[in-house]
Amino acid sequence: MSNSAADQLKKARQSRNLSIEEIAGEMNIQPQYLEAIEKGDFSALPDLMFAQEFIRTYANYLGVDPNPVLHEYRNFRNPVEKTPQENVSPIALSRRERHAQNRSQRQFRIPLPPKKWLVWGGGIVCLLLVTFITWLFLDQEEPAAQTVESKPPASSPSPAPQIQSRPTVSLLQPSETYKYGDVYGIKNADRVELKLTAVKPTEIRVRADGPTGKILAEKKLTPGKTETFTHEKWISLRVDHPNYVNLFVNGVKIDTAEQKEVHIYQLKLTD
């Protein structure tokens, strides 16, 4: 897609003398997806959530505004069709034209038969039908014995597989009312799953069983690399620059774009 918003990504990458394979290795994204984004071949990308995240992460890595590319991708997913005849007003006819139109319609009107002929015709059809049915019953032979075909009992249908509901994540208590940060509740899940992908380097600390629990990790995130943490009940996360990371909890993205200072997140299962 030449001269498109997606083509700007390719120009930005080439200006830095970087190959797609090098960037794919750093960002932990398959090379064919990055190549498809540069070409504007959005049909080669995975589902909506991952495709948009790949575009946003790749653009931020190259220092390009991701919004124009995201706009092209959304237009590809939901094209706007225009009706060619919309807003067409009817053409007003003059009095002479309306008279000619009505006259032509009267000329081609098919005359209907008189009502009496319809009554006579219906009576004849009914008489013929009654005669045929009477002859059919009088002329029929003794009915043959019916054979009953034995069939095996129908097996009861197997129960339909139950569709498991997708996990939901909601804010239960904001940091303004809780000293250990924002509290998020997770439903329809058997464990807490945290995924972090850094756009820029930043420090994190991950604890199990709440804000004072055991430290699972305390490290500096590398841009483009995804870190995953799981716990059966509760994960406490501290991030120095939340706006530098893409934060996913059980597949649901937490918006951290406006949080530019140290922030703490409590992620726990709820009934």
Automatic annotation (TrEMBL):
Span of domain HTH cro/C1-type: 9-69
InterPro entries, per the entry: Bact_Cytoskel_RodZ (IPR050400), Cro/C1-type_HTH (IPR001387), Lambda_DNA-bd_dom_sf (IPR010982), RodZ-like_C (IPR025194)
The transmembrane segments are 117-138
- Listed GO molecular functions? DNA binding
The UniProt keyword set, sorted, is: Membrane, Transmembrane, Transmembrane helix
Q: Where is this region: Disordered?
A: 147-168
Q: Which Pfam families match?
A: HTH_25, RodZ_C
The answer to whether the entry has keyword Endoplasmic reticulum is no
Can you say what this protein is called? Helix-turn-helix domain-containing protein
Which species is the source of this protein? Answer: Lihuaxuella thermophila
